[in-house]
Design a protein that fits this description.
Elements lengths: L26 H17 L3 E3 L9 E4 L15 E10 L4 E6 L7 E8 L1 E7 L5 E7 H14 L14 E3 H10 L1
Antiparallel strand pairs: 1-2, 2-3, 3-6, 4-5, 5-8, 6-7
């Protein structure tokens, strides 16, 4: 396994829609998945999409085998390849998000409260789940990466976008 370089906002590869994976069981794809897990863990993330490591394929990994300690609910470790995503219901919630490709910044992003996702797992087998809350937010965030969309592009109010230390200082003053 190897820790790959995470590309950052401004790199045009983050703005490209990704191609579907043709051979999930290939050695290259299996190595990429292992590398993505290791890269995400080393960076302290909860999700990572292939374009963030400069690979233009519809692969995302998310979740953790252990609690993040952030007070957020645990998200089961998942590999999702060639995903489809659909909202469940009409409820939209705004909450804070960060991104490994936009280090040091956070923004309040509106997302569907619940979504249904389907695709393939790391073995090429079909998977499908309906998830809500933080889990749904993580899935939507990573899915956006596969469409060439970064979370600031989803924001409605850029006054809710800033550097982590500044936002934390404001919260402590309130």
């Amino acid at each position: 396994m190897a820790i790959r370089n995470i590309i950052k906002m401004g790199d045009p590869r983050l703005l490209a829609a990704c191609a579907p994976v043709q051979n999930v069981r290939s050695q290259e794809i299996q190595q990429l998945i292992r590398d993505m897990w290791e890269t995400m863990a080393a960076a302290g993330g909860i999700g990572l999409a292939a374009p963030q490591v400069a690979v233009n394929l519809q692969i995302m990994v998310f979740g953790s085998a252990q609690s993040s300690g952030s007070g957020r609910p645990q998200v089961p470790p998942t590999v999702l390849i060639n995903p489809k995503l659909a909202p469940v219901g009409t409820q939209i919630e705004s909450d804070w998000e960060g991104c490994l490709s936009i280090p040091g910044l956070r923004g309040k992003v509106p997302r569907w409260h619940a979504v249904h996702f389907s695709g393939l797992n790391a073995l090429g087998e079909p998977i499908a789940h309906t998830v809500e809350g933080f889990h749904a937010r993580v899935v939507q965030h990573e899915y956006d990466h596969l469409q060439g969309v970064l979370y600031p592009m989803q924001m409605k109010d850029l006054s809710q976008f800033g550097f982590n230390e500044e936002l934390l200082a404001q919260q402590q003053q309130a």
